[in-house]
Write a structure and sequence with these properties.
mainly beta, three-stranded antiparallel beta sheet, rod-shaped
Length: about 110
């Protein structure tokens, strides 16, 4: 019995990575003062517009934020001192604030 002729075919497998880059940001609660949320999201302390949240004590608590996005989050609050000077900060869990976040790339971290 004769076999039927078929055109030669090339099969190829391609590896597709099933991963993402997880970003991890770490910070330390490092500033004391009245915490005001950036209510209108403009990045500038607006007296009378931005809402007071709580008084923060710089307690040294370390915390981290992880997620799929590797974009540094924007500062979302201000610490205002007795003289009315506002320092932009990151507000964490409505309980801690920090002036500095450090980004640590961690591939394949879930």
């Amino acid at each position: 019995m004769k076999k039927a002729w078929s055109a030669p075919m090339l099969q190829m497998e391609v590896f597709e990575a099933n991963e993402y880059i997880a970003a991890c940001y770490t910070g330390v609660c490092d500033i004391s003062g009245e915490v005001f949320l950036d209510s209108n999201g403009n990045g500038v302390y607006d007296r009378g517009i931005d809402s007071r949240k709580y008084y923060n004590e710089a307690c040294g608590q370390q915390y981290s934020i992880t997620g799929q996005d590797s974009v540094m989050p924007a500062k979302n609050a201000f610490v205002v001192d007795w003289f009315g000077n506002a320092t932009p900060v990151w507000n964490f869990d409505d309980y801690h604030v920090t002036t500095t976040l450090t980004q640590n790339e961690r591939p394949n971290h879930s």
